[in-house]
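Exam revision sheet. Question 4 asks you to relate a sequence to its structure. Input first:
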Amino acid sequence: MVQNTPCYKRILLKLSGEALAGQQSYGIDPEVISGIAGEIRDVIALGVQVAVVIGGGNIFRGVAAASRGMDRASADYMGMLATVMNSLALQDALEKVGVTTRVQSAIEMQEIAEPYIRRRAVRHLEKGRVVIFGAGTGNPYFTTDTAASLRAMEINAEVILKATKVDGIYTADPTKDKDAVKYTSLTYLDVLKKGLQVMDATATSLCMDNNLPIVVFDLTTPGNIHKVVLGEAIGTIVKGD
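Answer key, structure tokens:
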């Protein structure tokens, strides 16, 4: 029997910037972003409240620029602006499929996005709008993974859904090591001790301190967001003991 009752009432979806690029090495693939928008619409139709945090790696990687000699803070601010560009692209795609959306930016830019205000974000979610959090935390030296963890806590999300190009967490990179084994579940401490590249250590520690589960799954398979929300065992879940 197919379950049609969602396991979560409020989720935070973490998308990497690279996911939006699709098969391209750079930029935004319109087909990919419209596909993601369609999946989010299906989840909203289940009555689930959805917030989104997007990375900016498809446009600009602050860490990479800093490693080539650019000032780290300046590079990170440029990366934050890239996340706002991605947020506006996703907002456009969502509104094209009939989903009311708000972009809230941690860096104030009133002509294109609301400032991040926690209570306002929660109110939007309660009204069935998708809220996209842009510009990370608004601070350099923090990744969009950390921003996702922080925003998830602030809006009382029940889970972080981390959408990647791989169908879970493996013992090694499955694209390079054919003997890599997939984990179905892990504890936060496992992730930190083994140095697994799920989210950075700050983000993982934040989730551990607040007992917020993380589900890592493959975004490239259509329908996967819907399946995760319905509680199907896909990907890898990271939670407490």
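Marking note for examiners. The chain has a mean pLDDT of 94.
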